[in-house]
Structures are given as C-alpha cells and as structure tokens.
Amino acid sequence: MKRIGVIGGGQLALMMGSAAQKLSVELIVQTPNPNDPAVSIASNTIFAAVDDATATAELAKQCDVITFENEFIDIQALSKLATDKVCFRPRIEALSPLLDKYHQRCFLQDLGIPVPKFTLPESLFAVSSQTIQYTKITFPAVLKARRHGYDGQGTFIINDLTSLEKKLYQDPGKNHKNNLIESHFLLEEFIPFQKELAVVAARSTSGEISTFVVVETQQEQQVCRRVIAPADISLQIEKTIKDIACKVLDNLQVVGVFAIELFLTNSGEVLVNEIAPRTHNSGHFSIDACFTSQFEQHLRVVSDLPLGNVAMKIPCAIMVNLLGYETLKSNYSDKRSELAKIPGAHVHWYGKSESRPGRKLGHITVLFDKLNRDEAMTIANNIESIWYS
Length: 389
Ligand code: ADP
Known about the structure:
Elements: E1 3-7, H1 11-14, H2 17-23, E2 26-31, E3 44-47, H3 53-62, E4 65-68, H4 75-83, H5 92-95, H6 101-110, E5 118-119, E6 125-127, E7 132-134, E8 141-145, E9 155-158, H7 161-170, E10 185-189, E11 195-203, E12 209-211, E13 215-220, E14 223-229, H8 235-251, E15 256-264, E16 270-276, H9 286-289, H10 294-302, E17 316-323, H11 333-340, E18 345-349, E19 360-368, H12 373-387
Parallel strand pairs: 1-2, 1-4, 2-3
Antiparallel strand pairs: 5-10, 6-7, 8-9, 8-10, 11-12, 11-13, 11-15, 13-14, 14-17, 15-16, 17-19, 18-19
This protein binds adenosine-5'-diphosphate.
C-alpha cells in the first residue's frame, strides 16, 4: 500500500505528513480549500468537500486505500463505492453506527458498555392540542447535535426547561410546539465527573490491537485545553478502559486508529462519552512522547504494516492546545518562539490562514523526565498565560 487517500485536509491529516514520509507512503488528500493545512504535505489534492462522493470516486482511482481524518462524510454514498470494491480503512460498516451520536450511544449500550443515560428529546414530549408536557428530565442536562458537532460546537449544558425549548425550537424548520417531528438532537444526563479520560487504540488487519497510555483530558467550555499523559488512575481503571477499547474495535473489526473519550465518576465508574473513528486531539502527545505516534500507527495499520511500539519514551508529558482567541490573520511567530524556549517543549503549528476564537491553531507538548503532574500543570498554566496574554 503505497498511496493512501485521506478524506479531510485539516490538522489531523497534516500531522500524518511526517509519518507518511518515514514510511515512504504518499498521501492524496480530498479537502475543499487550497489553504487547508494538509494541502502542504499531500502529494496530490482533490479540492472537494469531504462529503462529495463523486470526488472520492476520483480519489479512489489515485490510491490503494482510503482513510479518514474527519467524519463529516456521506456514508450512504461511500457505501456504494465500497460495494464497487473501493477499499476503505476503517471499513464503512465500522463507521456507520458511530457518525450519529444517538446511534453511537445505542451501539455502545447494545454492547453492554456504560454510557450516560440518554434519549431523543422528542420522545419526552407528550403532545396534546396546544401544550407539550415534558417528562423525566432532570437538569442540568446535556443537549447534543446528533451529527456535525466538534470541539464542543453542538454540545450545550441545559439548566432549565426554557433554555431547552429555546434550543429545540431554534433548530431549523423541524420543531413546532404542536408538530414535533425530529429534533436532530440527543438529550442526556449531565455527568458530574471526577475526571475526563481518553485512550487511542489501533487495530491491524490481522486483528491485533495496541492501545496508547490512558490520558486525562481537561476541557473548558466543552473544548479540550490540556491533555496529561499518563492519567492518574488505578491499574484497574486503566484495564477497564483498555478492555472497552478492545471490545469496540473488535466488534466493528476496525482497521485504523480510534479514540475513545470517557468520564470517570466520583464512585469510580467509567462511562464512554464518545468514540472518534480516527486520530484525535487526545493522542497528539504521542508525536513527541511515544516511540510511535498515533499518526504513524494509523498509517501503519491502514497500509498493512505491523503495529509500532506505542510506549512512552519519557515518564510524563503534557499537551496544551493553542486555541484562537481573536479573529486575525497572524502566524503568532513571537509567541511561538517564546513557547519554544520552555525546556522540553515541542511546538506544533497547523499553518491555518486565519485565527478565530476557539479555533485549534496549534499545540505544544512538553516532555518531563520525572512523573510529576503538579509540575506539568504549572507549566501548562505558564504556556496558557504566554499564549492568551
Ligand atoms: P464534541 O463531540 O463536540 O467534542 P462532546 O460530546 O465530546 O462534544 O462534549 C464536549 C465536552 O462537553 C466533554 O468533553 C465534556 O467536558 C462536556 N460534556 C459532554 N457531555 C457531557 C455530559 N453528559 N455530562 C457532563 N459533561 C459533558
């Protein structure tokens, strides 16, 4: 497998670039804009939206296998291509239960994997002639767009009925008090978690699975700010999480890398929040901290190479996202050089043409030669005060 097609040209595809070089494989990218980050590392680009399956058919002619850097695809159209012998890794059947957050929750529940209690908002409405009664909702609750949410866009913490109604009726066209059809949202219980955790796992064509170390992720306003590797959890919890990863990847016969985000509750229960069927922000630390990065591991399994060693090279690492905080065309070179002076720091910049509030512009990983999470958190705070000053 020498030519790999990648649907999506954002930073996740960009970060496959150096792994592709190392493995001597070519990346051919399908992405809409010439400014998209991965255009710079692609050996060829098909400029088209990621859900343009006609463009993907064209991509297929130039590649041995096609993989994904995001999931905003047209799954039905890609299923047709798959029956026409286009090779997707992961296969389309492995993606289809996961793209809609409601279907994903149902899939996990059917596998016996614990998830937050969830429902469709429309199932809670008893519609009479002019009024709607809501049953069984405890606030706070979490309302999530079933598709196309990312970086917390599409996830809302809802504190009362009025706010819930406002969100539901804003939803384009569908919801009217007397005519509730389908809301495009999932409603679930708010989990007052102790920690958020994540694991990245890869499964090869022979069914072998390797999991990176479990990490702690820290979100603010539903957006990931920091990732600490390894997470401060017991061996038992680590095993529970790795068992969940194996169950999901085996069940779906995945070939590729998946990330699983989880909640750890105060009573020590582990619930799955979300599965991302691709490389993920929670695995970026692996570029600098592990012998094999999540991007190399993904390309290895997709191109039929043996799994790499995912052990950490050092005892501790922290990754801090560099998020946009203004709308500006700038490459922030001064701040980046200041950050690069931090001992053990590796700065990654995605080359986006414009900064917007909340946009992921880059990240920095700092490596430590001792396991000291307090020190790592202090460094993360320093990084954020330099970046957001
Ligand atoms: P996205 O897919 O956009 O990343 P998520 O569903 O992962 O959105 O939610 C983003 C963040 O919102 C989570 O990391 C967590 O901090 C918070 N969150 C999501 N669901 C819940 C929940 N049920 N209870 C508590 N917090 C939640």
